[in-house]
Every structure is written in C-alpha cells, then in structure tokens.
C-alpha cells in the first residue's frame, strides 16, 4: 500500500528533466529546421510542466487530507454533526417531492 504513494520531489525533478530535454530538442529542431523535432521538444516541455504541477497539487491534497483527519480525530462529535447535516441536506435536495393535487 505504501508503494502507491507518489514522491512529489521525484516527480518535480523528473518534470524539470523533461522540460530541459524539451528545451534542447526545441532548440536543436529550430537550428536544423526539423519541425517535428521542434514540436516534440514543445511536447516534452509541456509534459514536464504538467508533471511539476501535478506534484504540487498532490502535496496540497495530502495537506488537506491531513487537516481533515486531524479535525475528525480532535472533534468527533462535531464531525458527526456536520456529516449528518450535509447528508440530510443532500438527501433533501435529491428526494423527489410529491405534488398535492
């Protein structure tokens, strides 16, 4: 189960490597006039940026989950009340209403 976790630092590093590789391909394609190599470089750059952004979002998500877990552990009754209220409100919004004829 621990193997399923993502290492954000590793993802950011690999994203930076992809971006650097993309810059090199883009420049080489521009110098040689090879538009396919240039396009491949731009794709690598975008993939690297996406990988870095994903790592940032993953870190933020882990922080939010930890905050939620701590809140539930510290205030279980309040958490239960919030869950009950949200469930009731959700059910009320989805429940079909009878129309009086």
Automatic annotation (TrEMBL):
<dbReference type="Pfam" id="PF05532">
    <property type="entry name" value="CsbD"/>
</dbReference>
<keyword id="KW-0812">Transmembrane</keyword>
<protein>
    <submittedName>
        <fullName>CsbD family protein</fullName>
    </submittedName>
</protein>
<keyword id="KW-0472">Membrane</keyword>
<feature type="domain" description="CsbD-like">
    <location>
        <begin position="11"/>
        <end position="61"/>
    </location>
</feature>
<keyword id="KW-1133">Transmembrane helix</keyword>
<feature type="transmembrane region" description="Helical">
    <location>
        <begin position="77"/>
        <end position="95"/>
    </location>
</feature>
<dbReference type="InterPro" id="IPR008462">
    <property type="entry name" value="CsbD"/>
</dbReference>
<comment type="similarity">
    <text>Belongs to the UPF0337 (CsbD) family.</text>
</comment>
<dbReference type="InterPro" id="IPR036629">
    <property type="entry name" value="YjbJ_sf"/>
</dbReference>
């Amino acid at each position: 189960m621990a193997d399923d976790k993502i290492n954000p630092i590793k993802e950011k590093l690999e994203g930076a490597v992809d971006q650097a590789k993309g810059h090199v391909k883009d420049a080489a394609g521009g110098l040689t006039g090879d538009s396919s190599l240039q396009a491949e470089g731009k794709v690598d750059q975008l993939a690297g940026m996406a990988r870095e952004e994903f790592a940032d979002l993953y870190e933020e998500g882990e922080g939010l989950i930890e905050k939620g877990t701590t809140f539930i552990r510290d205030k279980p009754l309040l958490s239960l009340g919030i869950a009950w209220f949200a469930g009731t409100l959700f059910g009320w919004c989805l429940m079909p209403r009878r129309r009086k004829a």
